[in-house]
């Protein structure tokens, strides 16, 4: 045998990974979500364990890939479900307002007023807008690496 028997015990660190590689349908959604990919890969590649056969390490890595694939599938399903719920919540025309509750646009928007400060500002051109965007990006990068 080219591996430690404690690695593949029922409660061992790689039990779920081995099951995912060989009997993927035997694991439930909770088992997939509880599996930690980082610790599993660390247990496979760990230096503290005796070396294992290439075939076994390949099978265990296949199990890790299947766990990762199933986790991403569950994440995609959750995201799609959230998007559908958001779209259903904010559908146009699904507002239950009476005629007394509906107001005109003038009642809820501010009118454009020109003040003396607006007159003193330089005209906004494409170049000035581009420079301001570049400046904002540079400040953001500076704050990240600060």
Give a written overview of the molecule.
- The chain is mostly helical and 146 residues long.
- The protein has 2 domains: 15-89, no CATH class; 105-144.
- Helices cover 60% and strands 0% of the residues.
- The protein contains 7 helices and no strands.
- The relative contact order is 0.09.
List the topology elements.
Elements: H1 15-22, H2 29-34, H3 37-45, H4 54-89, H5 105-108, H6 116-120, H7 126-144
Helix pairs in contact: 1-4, 3-4
Strand content: under 5%
Helical content class: 55-70%
Order of helices and strands: HHHHHHH
Question: Outline, from the CA principal axes?
Answer: elongated
The low-confidence parts are: none
If helices are DSSP runs of H or I spanning 4 or more residues, what is the number of helices? 7
How many whole angstroms does the radius of gyration measure? 29 Å
Short descriptors:
146 residues; mainly alpha; 7 helices
Can you summarize this structure?
With 146 residues, this protein is an all-alpha fold.
């Amino acid at each position: 045998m080219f591996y430690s028997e404690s690695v593949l015990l029922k409660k061992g660190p790689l039990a779920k990974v081995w099951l995912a590689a060989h009997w993927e349908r035997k694991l439930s959604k909770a088992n997939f979500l509880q599996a930690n990919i980082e610790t599993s890969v660390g247990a496979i590649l760990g230096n503290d364990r005796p070396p294992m056969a290439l075939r076994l390490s390949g099978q265990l890595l296949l199990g890790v890939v299947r766990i990762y694939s199933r986790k991403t599938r569950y994440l995609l399903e959750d995201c799609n479900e959230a998007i559908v719920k958001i779209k259903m919540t904010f559908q146009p025309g699904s507002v239950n307002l009476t005629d007394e509750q509906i107001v005109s646009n003038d009642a809820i928007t501010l009118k454009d007023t020109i003040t003396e400060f607006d007159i003193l500002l330089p005209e906004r051109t494409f170049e000035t807008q581009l420079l301001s965007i570049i400046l904002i990006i540079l400040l953001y990068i500076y704050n990240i690496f600060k």
